[in-house]
Design a protein that fits this description.
Blueprint: H1 2-9, H2 16-22, H3 27-31, H4 38-48, H5 55-70, H6 80-90, H7 98-111, H8 132-145, H9 147-155, H10 164-179, E1 187-188, E2 194-196, E3 202-204, H11 213-228, H12 233-239, H13 243-250, E4 253-255, E5 263-266, H14 270-273, H15 284-294
Antiparallel strand pairs: 1-2, 2-3, 4-5
Helix pairs in contact: 1-8, 1-15, 4-8, 5-6, 7-8, 9-11, 10-11, 11-13
Length: about 300
């Protein structure tokens, strides 16, 4: 997540070679400042040396390596490289203990206390978020906080032996392509609630997607982890409100059709939830898709 957040916060990178060439070489260049503060320096150090607990970063790295090795340029809505990158990532070793990752994300909460007090709109277009430091602080925190459940969720399989994450991405991408008329500039918001077209028009993602069996299998992994390992209350409130709000929004009551995609039986009004920042935790999927699509622009 830090990988995609920082790239999105610093411009649109047309392809993988351009990304490698243009990505900032220093902390000062990344945050556009003469002197990096403690939070910025900490984030920069994590970016330069992410370690295995940074699941979102490492998954993104594997996708780019697959693209680079192929010598091909990705096309919008073609999820081939995501599948190959996911297969590569899930067959690599993963050594990240809860004790180790807790030390990392607790330190981020401490050092970046001010930056993590800023409220951001996770339903907005990333380019509209002007506070790059706070944006990156949330991304860095969530990269490590979700490192263990994200690894498990990305690599969990359905009853047919296929990766649930890829099956969900494939369904969502197919819907997105149809609804946007294959708009290459369209992105998915960090909270997985909207698609924003190149002209700025917002399209709400149907909540029936959150009834998809693969989605629910992954969401339960995140939900259980969040209940067992809490962040500071003030930070949780800025990200998802409460664990109750989180589950009501992303694990609604569903009834299933034979084809596996459900209809929602009970839907809570969004009015109360919209007063809080919606949840970007599950955005590991949307971030990967957004950056993947931007490579082809």
């Amino acid at each position: 997540m830090i990988f995609s957040l920082q790239v999105q916060a610093n411009g649109d990178y047309g392809d993988s070679e351009q990304w490698e060439h243009d990505f900032p070489d220093t902390c000062q260049e990344l945050f556009k400042t003469k002197h990096c503060n403690k939070c910025q320096s900490l984030m920069w150090n994590h970016f330069k040396n992410p370690g295995q607990c940074a699941t979102a970063f490492n998954f993104g790295r594997d996708i780019f390596e697959v693209i680079k090795d192929s010598g091909e340029k990705p096309k919008p809505y073609d999820v081939t490289f995501i599948k190959k990158g996911l297969n590569k990532y899930c067959h690599e070793g993963f050594h990240c203990s809860q004790n180790k990752v807790e030390k990392i994300y607790n330190n981020i909460q401490k050092v970046c206390k001010h930056e993590l007090s800023v409220k951001l709109d996770w339903s907005d277009h990333p380019e509209n978020i002007k506070d790059i430091t706070s944006y990156a602080a949330y991304g860095t925190l969530l990269t490590y906080y979700t490192g263990i459940p994200a690894r498990k969720a990305l690599c969990t399989k359905n009853n047919h032996g296929d990766f649930c994450s890829f099956e969900f991405i494939k369904k969502l991408t197919k819907w997105m392509k149809k609804k946007t008329n294959a708009d290459p500039k369209a992105i998915i918001t960090h909270d997985l609630r909207f698609v924003i077209k190149g002209d700025g028009k917002k399209i709400r993602i149907p909540k029936s997607f959150f009834c998809d069996p693969c989605w629910r299998k992954m969401a339960h992994i995140y939900g259980d982890y969040i209940e067992d390992h809490r962040l500071k209350k003030s930070i949780e409130k800025n990200i998802w409100g409460s664990s109750h709000d989180l589950k009501e929004l992303y694990l609604p009551h569903c009834t299933y059709h034979k084809r596996g995609l459900g209809e929602i039986l009970k839907v809570r009004s969004d009015s109360k939830l919209s007063e809080r920042s919606a949840n970007p935790v599950f955005g590991v999927l949307s971030h990967r898709m957004n950056k993947f699509h931007s490579l082809a622009i």
